[in-house]
Amino acid sequence: MANRLKGKVAIVTGAGSGIGRAAAILFAKEGAKVVVADYDEKGGRETAAMISRAKGKAIFVKADVSSSSDAKKLVAAAVKNFGKLNILYNNAGIVRWGNAVECTEEDWNRVIDINMKGAWLCSKYAIPEMTKAGGGSIINTASIAGCVAFAKIAAYCASKGGLIELTKSMALDFAQNKIRVNAICPGVIKTGMTKGILNDKKTLQGMLKATVIGRLGEPEDIAYAALYLASDESSFVTGTTIVADGGWTVQ
Ligand code: NAP
Question: For residue 72, with 0-12 CB atoms within 10 Å meaning exposed, 13-18 middle and 19 or more buried, which class applies?
Fold first, then answer.
């Protein structure tokens, strides 16, 4: 067990798979007590069990981040079980396909509710607890789709662009509480979210070509960026985004 997060209590949302799972496992390995949050009960319980098997500390809390009562319950569970809250990693997210004309109102609302409102709700309830704990770190998984446009995912681009601006707004408002707020913008990462599109050979080739580093990302590539932002190593860093995209947006 290493100790970059020794003594810290962290919530990771969307930790039942992909980037969230990798981050929850890494945070626990670095000494944090982790609240694994997801609305996928099976995946979430699996992540918590993986951490326990590796002798880390974790509990699973089933929560839909777009629900105010679930977000409140999630923060309360962290404090009840581990005594305080230092780190919130808002990572849960979904994508729905379609340009602005094709996108249904139902899909638009769901994407905005989870990707943007969910991060706000969890932060809303976490910030008072972090303040009591003497400060903390909030990390939001945005996307390069929040920096540059991608075709046919209008709601997703809007939600991630909004999340980047929310990151800056919260960084400004809560610096005085010693709470830092930063975002990570991943490029294409091999997770459940991208599995379908990466099965298509032509799409895969196109994505590899656009990722100048020559490979697609692994969940751990993002988890390490989150670890840096969660730890005191980044104590002078707030209101910014780390772009971890293998060079996709460099050209
Ligand atoms: P993933 O493997 O699908 O993981 C997302 C997790 O969040 C899933 O377990 C999902 O559960 C859960 N989730 C979805 N809605 C939720 C809600 N309302 N409440 C709680 N949990 C919820 O995908 P991922 O790639 O790791 O995605 C993690 C984050 O990275 C997302 O915010 C995504 O937008 C962002 N991102 C991903 C990529 C990429 O290329 N993969 C690139 C840029 C940004 P279900 O599986 O049951 O839906």
Answer: middle
Q: pTM of the prediction?
A: 0.99
Distance CA 59, CA 132 (A): 22
DSSP 8: -
Q: What is the pLDDT of residues 149-195, one digit of tens each?
A: 999 999 999 999 999 999 999 999 999 999 999 999 999 999 999 99
**Cβ of 141: how many Cβ atoms within 10 Å?**
28
> Ligand 1 centroid vs 217 CA: distance in angstroms?
15
Superfamily in which the 9-190+218-244 domain is placed by CATH: NAD(P)-binding Rossmann-like Domain (3.40.50.720)
| CB-ligand 1 contact for 220 (6 Å cutoff) | no
Task: List pLDDT tens digits, range 80-112.
Answer: 999 999 999 999 999 999 999 999 999 999 999
Calpha distance 246→188 (Å, rounded): 8
Give yes or no for residue 227 CB within 6 A of ligand 1.
Answer: no
